[in-house]
Amino acid sequence: MLDSFLNGLAVVFQPMNFLLLTSAVFIGFIGGALPGISGVILVVILLPVTYGMDPTAAFMLLTAIYGSTVFSGLITAILYRAPGTPEAVMTAFDGYPMTQQGQAGKALGIGVLSSAIGGLVGTIALIIFTPVLASFALKFSSPEYFALAVLGLTVVASLGGRLIYGLIGACLGLFIATIGFDPLTGTSRYTFGSLELAEGVGLIPVIVGLFAISEVMKRALGEETHQPLKKVSINIFDMHILRKIGVTLSRSSLLGVVIGILPGIGASTAAMVSYSEAVRWSKTPEQFGKGAPEGIAAPEAANNAAAMGALVPLFALGIPGSGTTAIILGAFIMHGLQPGPMFMVTSSDLVYAVFAGLFIVNFMILLFSKPFIALFTRLLNIPYSALGPIIVMCCIIGTYSVRNSMFDVWLMLGFGVLGYLLEKLKFPLVSIILGLVLGPIAESELRRTLAMSRGDFMIFFERPISATLIVISLLLLTAAIVVPLRKRAKLKAANK
Amino acid sequence: MLIKQSLLAAGSLGLALVGYASVTIASDTAENYPTKPLQFLVAAGAGGGTDNFARTVKPMLEEVLDTRVTVVNLPSASGAIAHQRTANSEPDGHTLDFASSTLVTSLAAGQNPTGLDELTPVARMQSDVMTLIVDPEKYPDFESFRKHAEENPGEVIIGGTHAASPDRMAFLSFRDASGLDINFIPYDEEGSVSANVMGGNIDGMFGEISSTLSYMESGEMMPILVFAEERLENFPDIPTTVEHGWDLTDGNERGIFVNADTPEAILAKIEASMKEVYDSDAYQEYEERVNLHYREGWLGSEDYRQQLEKNLENYKRLLEEN
């Protein structure tokens, strides 16, 4: 295997391939940084270009673009609270407050470092453990997915702010997730006969509206105080911070890999679950949402690790782990290749060249991100009266391009207004996203599980992985409710 | 009276003129067609089989018709938006709807309001073979699967994509014909279904033969029943539905549709152009590369319509009985 990997590196360092890889990283940087232009769209746009290339070069290009878009979504998330990709939405929660406090450079540095580390952990797992991990992924079926979604949802109880707001937010997210065709029977739910709503409310219109648009409104109405920024200096290797976020980084990278390899669950979910866990295990959970360094490290390490993890089932089993990898699978078929269990054997040269390419891409991210981000930070000096409308325009184009739908644009603007109003109430927007992302998984997997067991709930406890996850969620939920109650009781006793 | 008569005469003359004019315009437009760039509306997301089909045909048709084509993906609501937009477009043959069998399956399930009265099929170009796929360690052949299902009624679970998908229709028609008591669970995407079959969580799935080749090689998954009249040349060991006395041969098909009001002449011209694309070496090479060459794909406008109508009736009946 080491041999194959070294051969792969040799292929990557051929001048033409290296040039291709470098340009792929830059294309990915730009696409990822623009709100709404996600990895999916970039890969689709470049797909026809690759038909003329030899397959190895083509897939190095596509996977490198994929990896670098997942990274660069953090730039606009941190600087303008306009997540460049859905994967970066969690990064905005703590990254943007840091920018408001004049610490954009620090926030970006943490983001870049966490992304690169997460990406490297993911790539190494991909190179060494692909066959093992793939058989682990097959152990996950509906009961396990449901248990995982429940574990993610229980974090609502530990998020800062008023618990009742968190619950309302999560329910709102869950409700939005029910709109559209029922995933199992195909019955319309809350569509009011509209075909546009039949497919459900997309994640991108909601994220872009709730975060980017509401922020532009806030600043346009002059309700936002912003520390003036003259110069942003990005410090990627800050030992002091590294020590502080080290634990979060390791946990999130591992979580990212594990969640990434599960078919059908992508990097956005991984970022969300690892953010939740960072909050849960933190000694200072109240700092999250106000500019906690761990709040940037957790989602960024996890989403980059998960993006690489999502390639594991693609290469080992021919099953895509996420939206973008599904398109890469289509690209393989168009090139006359059949990813499947034999792919690693029959096309080992191609596979290891792609792996080596991804390995190098993570270092390129570390190297090139600084000058690239500098371009974006300079935009901060543009008066907001000009920058705000540009952000709105990018949001509209990006949202439209996802499904070629004007309806989604109106939806996005509607969610912008909603987000603005909810933030006035100090409503935690993160709980809405939590419900929206995890809701569909929880719902359909619960129903599939019960279809598998013909209505018997014991199936959750008969399977070891799901039983463990469910028991952990129950314990965490009880702890989250009992601990504050006991604290309050103690305080009362002390006051008497 | 006289005035009335002359008015009438003038009126009918006018009508005749209008009729004549529209006929000449129609044939003129067929000769000049296309007068502007074409638009392909793909009733599926980017990167899937239908999208690849449209994007492969695009440069070939551009050459045949000497025009430009833009491709727009409209995956929302299983492609229903693409069908609706095609039906509402100018009936001049410049908007082509690229769709799979999902068009009729979602129509039968009431999820797609645009019926075959608003859309005219131009041609079918792909016909993939539906198969029953299982883990060969669990069921080495169709007989063992059948025996297990007969002995354990209600226990066998088949996975599929969604409730109105071609593979659900394959499941329903298979259950209807074989009389086996088996169940269906829909998943969000085909990848999850295969993962569950390989992981042993469910018993099998219905899928196209083109997508299972690499699994057959490694022995992770195996087709054990082919929806076809005769055994496939490349897979002589796999029994067919017809040998078991079940008249089930429809697989997943992909074709092109236009607004139903499109003039005959233009329709004929598009059909002829598509036939030229279909017969080209480049297109046949593509079919072979993506393993769609096991069965003749081409079906002209009229034949395709008849088959779609037959399938639609059948699917409606199956869904009602279910």
TrEMBL record, chain A:
Keywords, ordered alphabetically: Membrane, Transmembrane, Transmembrane helix
InterPro entries (alphabetical): DUF112_TM (IPR002823)
Chain ranges of the DUF112 domain: 19-434
Organism: Vreelandella subterranea
Spans traversing the lipid bilayer: 20-47, 59-80, 107-133, 145-177, 197-217, 314-337, 349-369, 381-402, 409-442, 465-485
The protein's name: Putative tricarboxylic transport membrane protein
PANTHER family per UniProt: TRICARBOXYLIC TRANSPORT PROTEIN
Automatic annotation (TrEMBL), chain B:
Coiled-coil regions, chain positions: none
CDD domains: PBP2_Bug_TTT
Transmembrane regions listed in the UniProt entry: none
Record carries keyword Transport: no
UniProt signal peptide: 1-21
Keyword presence, Lipid biosynthesis: no
Keywords in alphabetical order: Receptor, Signal
Protein family: Belongs to the UPF0065 (bug) family.
Protein name (database record): Tripartite-type tricarboxylate transporter, receptor component TctC
Organism, as annotated: Vreelandella subterranea
